Amino acid sequence: MIxxxxxxxxxxxxxxxxxxxxxxxINIENTIDxxxxxxxxxxxxxxxxxxxxxxxxxxxxxxxxxxxxxxxTRGINIISENDKEVYIKAEAGEKWNNLIQFCIEHNFxxxxxxxMIPGKVGSSPVQNIGAYGTxxxxxxxxxxxxxxxxxxxxxxxxxxxxxxxRRSIFKDKLRNKFIISSVTYKLSKIPKPNISYxxxxxxxxxxxxxxxxxxxxxKSVCKIRNTKLPNPDIxxxxxxxxxxPLVSSSKLxxxxxxxxxxxxxxxxxxxxxxxxxxxxxxxxxKGKSWGNAAIYEKQPLVLINKGGASxxxxxxxxxxxxxxxxxxxxxxxxxxxxIVAS
Length: 342
Ligand SMILES: Cc1cc2nc3c(=O)[nH]c(=O)nc-3n(C[C@H](O)[C@H](O)[C@H](O)COP(=O)(O)OP(=O)(O)OC[C@H]3O[C@@H](n4cnc5c(N)ncnc54)[C@H](O)[C@@H]3O)c2cc1C
Description:
Elements: E1 4-9, E2 21-28, H1 31-44, E3 49-52, E4 58-60, E5 64-71, E6 76-81, E7 85-91, H2 96-106, E8 130-131, E9 134-135, E10 140-147, E11 153-157, E12 178-188, H3 198-206, H4 214-228, E13 236-240, E14 246-247, H5 249-258, E15 264-266, E16 272-274, H6 276-282, E17 289-290, E18 293-295, E19 302-305, H7 311-329, E20 338-340
Parallel strand pairs: 2-5, 3-5, 4-20
Antiparallel strand pairs: 1-2, 6-7, 7-12, 8-9, 10-11, 10-12, 13-19, 14-16, 15-16, 17-18, 18-19
The structure holds flavin-adenine dinucleotide.
């Protein structure tokens, strides 16, 4: 039976470490909890609902005046396999890195470049998590989700999720409308190292040889991440605060005229992805503070809570950066983190 808690503190449930409460909170541990919560929402006519995973990609802007559904279901199962492929279904509340560990141990290829990303399985499709040349959309087969308001269970095939760069249908049109209950990934039993990301290839070469096993890749990814990113258990943060902006090739040409060292990546569709970290650093923000909020010294894309920062302090800093990048480059930075209004 579900337990509806009142005025629950959320400081431990968001990696920014923002000290806020929620009016109502339900801990979800199984499908029955999901169905009972949906019934409760209907009976009480609740409209302000937020589905919470590991809280590593959100910024609470103040007391949440609604209901938090905290997804803590567990389980990882092989549902079918042949010589070449395996289908793995993981419950939404399973820690992402438990799934990674499972895949590394079994030699199932596809997720290794996404090692060490904090959070849970159910959030992986929401912003189509990506790192080191891999996006999770490339291995998501389908997912199960419950309509929060009708209780209807729906299967979303990969193509139904409308995946894009750090986005999916669940981050826009269906935001807070569905509870993703499990995700099925189609992985390869045949080694498929993806070392297209320059920094990863270089790190692997340091270990010698040119044939890499899944564990080599896992270890290299962890090594790079440990040197570049703050550990949220120690320094409050939500990873990259901004997306890398996509611009046209003519916009790139304008920027190149004045800044020949701009860092960019040409996309398959001809658009250009600018390195937001470079733009921010060029505006002189790297390592700077604004009250208790600051920019991480080793990675300017990451905003950190130096201790006791309010969400407003973090947003003030973010807005200042957006303004500066716009006035210097005429490029708009988009926030990647989910801003949760009260
Ligand atoms: C140090 C650090 C490094 C990071 N590195 C990366 C990186 O390399 N690449 C990357 O893509 N991200 C990265 N992130 C961001 C974050 O870890 C990922 O986006 C992660 O998938 C978020 O998972 P979560 O469970 O914490 O989600 P939450 O923060 O709890 O939620 C994120 C969003 O998903 C929704 N959601 C969560 N669970 C469900 C569900 N079951 N059903 C429906 N909606 C749901 C929430 O409502 C919210 O909108 C990083 C974060 C940190 C702190």
